[in-house]
Amino acid sequence: MERGDRDRRPLDAAEAAFVLDLDPDLGRGVNVEEWDAARRACRGTLLRLSDGVWDVPLLAGERDDLLGLLIVDGLLCREVSLHDRHMLELLGPGAVLQLPVVSERPRLGGDIRLTAVTGAMLVGLGASFIHAAGRWPTLLPAIHRRLEAQREHLAIQGLIAHLPRAEHRLLLQLWHLADRYGRVTPEGTQLPLPLRHDLLGQLAACRRSTVTLAIGALASEGCIRRMADGSWLITAIAERRVDAIARGNGTARVLGESLMRPRSSARRRVSSQGQDGHEPAVRYRRRPIRWSSDEGAVATGLPPHKPPG
């Protein structure tokens, strides 16, 4: 079978695997007494990918019996493009890959492309895992925590691209990647990714020529060093520089408040009674988020929701 044919095979055409054997941390909320039963119930389909672009079946992301793909080994790159710019997300072991969807896609941007940067092994979290999560509910929050962590990492990556100085953007992107995928050495943290100047330009939102100048400046300061194998070394000097850049000016701003409608004097003077003599259904003041269960209230520190009597 050719490599391209193997990468295009259906998601169902794979060997079975026990998910908790491959990633025991997913089951850390399962009681010890029930571990064996949970291990046998949490089954998935194992996928082995060769390095290269992965042509995912068109409607794979629309399946209701597939929660996602858990990356067991290897590194994948998920990217979307707009004009000549690319947004890259690197996903390694422990990450949960959700396949592109056809419905509810943004109108801007091209197709999402997936590339196995190295040979990769993934396990599909299909119907067996979903059914097991009904018996052991802690499995789903474990998945969602990882998805939220991935979302936050991607948000920081996008935020770094807003910094005004190119060398700051480049240094913080390298640091951000090394924090997840780097190896600590006596000389610093080694990022074992052969990031070329054009790809660094996409990450740092600058032209290739600007990347070359920024790398030269950072190297002369002793912050980074290109290794013979193409990897990058981020030194202790870089750590102090990153701390200084990321520290901020201490001004706390919540931009979301600027999206709120200004309260007019008429709204502030809401009558304590409606036209029919009863309490009005809507008041123009802030209310805490209400939860429909005591469990949600305990998790957030909010009082439990009491339905009107």
Detailed description of the structure:
This protein has 309 residues and is of the alpha+beta class. It has 2 domains: 3-159, Jelly Rolls; 164-246, Winged helix-like DNA-binding domain superfamily/Winged helix DNA-binding domain (Arc Repressor Mutant, subunit A). It is 34% helix and 19% strand. It has 11 helices and 13 strands. The chain has helices at 3-7, 19-22, 35-41, 127-135, 139-160, 166-181, 197-204, 208-220, 236-246, 265-268, 294-300; strands at 15-18, 43-49, 52-54, 68-73, 76-82, 85-91, 96-97, 113-116, 120-125, 183-185, 188-191, 224-226, 232-234. The strands form 3 sheets. A 5-stranded antiparallel β-sheet has the order 1-2-9-4-7. It has a 4-stranded antiparallel β-sheet with strand order 3-8-5-6, with no helix packed on it. β12 (224-226) and β13 (232-234) form a beta hairpin. It is globular and about 55 Å long. Residues 1-13, 268-274, 279-300 and 305-309 have low confidence and may be disordered.
What's this, in brief?
The protein has 309 residues and is an alpha+beta fold. Helix content is 34%, strand content 19%.
